[in-house]
Amino acid sequence: MSQSTKDQAVKDILKNHKLRLTRVRLKILNIFLDSSKALTHEDIESHFDQLDRITLYRTLKTFEESGLIHKIPSSDNTPLYAICAEDCNHNRHMDNHGHFHCLKCGKTYCMEEVKIPAIDLPDGYEASNQHLVMEGNCADCNE
Ligand SMILES: [Zn+2]
Ligand SMILES: [Zn+2]
Ligand SMILES: [Zn+2]
């Protein structure tokens, strides 16, 4: 995909989620689209010469609230984010997939093909979120 096609795709995503286009949003969304793994704040910052932390924090929060990216829990509590499937929208995430964290290279991947099974809860409990994170060796590290 050429950069201009990609920029157009990013602009469409922002528009579909009713978000104003800014230079930082455009760039951060591009970084997510280019990445096959989940990203930390640090990963994103490394693409910028200078990026104010508050701007980054706010942008990620806005993206998360708007259904563009989802947060993935990690064992060391470093926030990880990955781009959402198209059916997520404002305040409603539909990312019902598992995640895989590689203990060797440290990368975390979305496993879109691994669906989280419905889990029966005791009476009175209602889950608004469920996470499945597997750990082990990823395909690259297993070669
Ligand atoms: Zn989502
Ligand atoms: Zn690995
Ligand atoms: Zn994911």
Describe the protein.
This protein is α+β, with helices and mostly antiparallel strands and 143 residues long. 31% of the residues lie in helices and 18% in strands. A 3-stranded mixed sheet has the order 4-3-5, with no helix packed on it. It has a two-stranded antiparallel ribbon with strand order 1-2. A hairpin with a 7-residue loop joins β1 and β2. The longest helix has 14 residues. The protein is globular, with a radius of gyration of 16 Å. The mean pLDDT is 92. The chain binds zinc ion (3 copies). One zinc ion (ZN) binds next to β1 and β3. One zinc ion binds next to loops.
SSE order: HHHHEEEEE
Q: Give unreliable regions as ranges.
A: none
Strand order of the largest sheet: 4-3-5
Considering DSSP H and I runs of 4 or more, what fraction of the residues is helical? 25-40%
The tally of structural domains comes to 1
CATH class: Mainly Alpha
Instruction: Specify the CATH architecture.
Output: Orthogonal Bundle
| Small molecules in complex | zinc ion
Strand element count: 5
Strand content is 15-25%
